[in-house]
Amino acid sequence: MREDKLKEALIETYDVFNGRNGNGRGQIVTGLKTYLRNGNPNYFTRGDTSNGKKGSRDIISKIDRKELADYLADFVVDVIAKIKKPESISERYIIDIVQQELKNGMSENEVKRYVSECILGKRNGILNYTADNIIDVATKTYSDVLIVDTEARRSENLKNAHKSINPRYGVKNLRANPTMVNYCVEEVLNGNQIRIQNDVKRNRNSKYRPARSYNLNDEMFAYTDIGNVRDNQEDSVLIMYHPNNEKYKMLVVADGMGGLAGGENASNEAVKEIIDWFSVLRENYMQKGNEKFLQAALDRKIKDISKSIADKFYGSGTTFVGAIVGEQYTLIASVGDSRAYVLDNDYDLHQLTVDDNPSFKYWKADWKDVKLNRRTARQMEEEKDYLRFKNGSNAITDYLGRTDGMDPKVKFSLMPNDLYKTLMLFSDGVTDCLSDKEIKAITATTDPKKLAETIARQALSKDSIAPEKIRHDKNYKDIIRAGKDNTTVALITKKDGEER
């Protein structure tokens, strides 16, 4: 039996279900017991089976059940039975069986055979312990040891990554190969992306900004900062490659809402769920011609996430803007007022998303049927910029985590990759503090490797003064203070002539 294949299948299932419902251990124990007893592999995750690759379900179904039972019997007898001071009833079971049967003259190999037969359900039990007791002990003990070993290796990898960027608070960029540790994903999954920033904010003597910065292969970048006013971070950000094909990428910005109700929990939940979903998404969904299926799948997932947030963190919510970049097309999805922009091949900036905000929608409607020329386009952009200063401009009408029984209405746009140079996602901590004109100017003068951080830092350092036309109008603010909110950027860029 291939031990490496068994471990691969168990850990894949553990990761998927631990991200989905927090019970990855329980899922692999149930999967093992069900397969050993009746040959049903369906409790293991199917995984990605495209291009001839095997998911956990396929791997497990190829493992001989008797060989697997013998392997687990060897494991529990060799490892657990030799523990001098058992820490659990599970360990006590096996120790009692081995010690008593050996005293009765049975060899260790005979004990292992009895344990294996109990695991398969071919024997009712040993001594006072039923076969169900024994399979429960064997599968849980093996799973626990495997998970502990796996998490220890991951922790060591993460420590090595930390050394390259400062072990706790540093925000220097990490350049990683897609097959290596994705520090952004790791920090989302273990909660450190938000936790470290909050720790820095509370430490008055810290020399670091409460921020995190990520760089994947000088192609995808993210920067997130608490800002100058907020006491805690409620934004979450994600940049990642598809685990099985680096040509497919996912970027997300989620801006949590809810204050004491836990806006940071809502945004973190949304991004964790998307990591889980995207990691096992079949590659054929992202191929040309399948865009409508990908959109439908993402739409369902976002609505499921909304329900999950409402159930787990009632009273909190989050915006969502995400992009799946395939080989030829980019799919954008949004709910709320976090935005997506592209810098096109002529270096013009375009907003691809629509804010779920009454003021933005009224502005959009006012200009819907206007024939644009140079003068009217300039006027339209000026009026859009006024919206940043309007009182109540941060009131949103849709978000994830709704508790009114309604699903969020996810808005989509699809764009060929060859029509843009840079795709950027922002929380409103950026777009409240910087006009489109300012963002465009920054992109024109900044090294792409520094663009995410430069945009964020500009939003954190420059006050915005209202245009003369609306200044002192009671419906508008005269000034927007730099860093008024959590500030987050995620982007993907390409060099001239480079295929995405």
What is the structure about, briefly put?
This protein has 2 domains: 3-154, no CATH class; 164-493, PPM-type phosphatase domain (Phosphatase 2c, domain 1, 4-Layer Sandwich). The chain has helices spanning 3-21, 24-38, 56-61, 65-79, 89-103, 108-119, 131-163, 183-190, 192-202, 263-279, 291-312, 358-366, 374-386, 428-431, 436-445, 451-461, and strands at residues 125-126, 129-130, 211-216, 220-225, 235-242, 245-257, 317-318, 320-325, 329-335, 339-344, 349-351, 411-416, 420-426, 464-465, 479-480, 487-493. The chain has 16 helices and 16 strands.
Give the SSE map.
Blueprint: H1 3-21, H2 24-38, H3 56-61, H4 65-79, H5 89-103, H6 108-119, E1 125-126, E2 129-130, H7 131-163, H8 183-190, H9 192-202, E3 211-216, E4 220-225, E5 235-242, E6 245-257, H10 263-279, H11 291-312, E7 317-318, E8 320-325, E9 329-335, E10 339-344, E11 349-351, H12 358-366, H13 374-386, E12 411-416, E13 420-426, H14 428-431, H15 436-445, H16 451-461, E14 464-465, E15 479-480, E16 487-493
Antiparallel strand pairs: 1-2, 3-4, 4-16, 5-6, 6-7, 6-8, 8-9, 9-12, 10-11, 10-13, 13-16, 14-15
Helix pairs in contact: 1-2, 1-7, 1-10, 2-7, 4-6, 4-7, 5-7, 6-7, 10-11
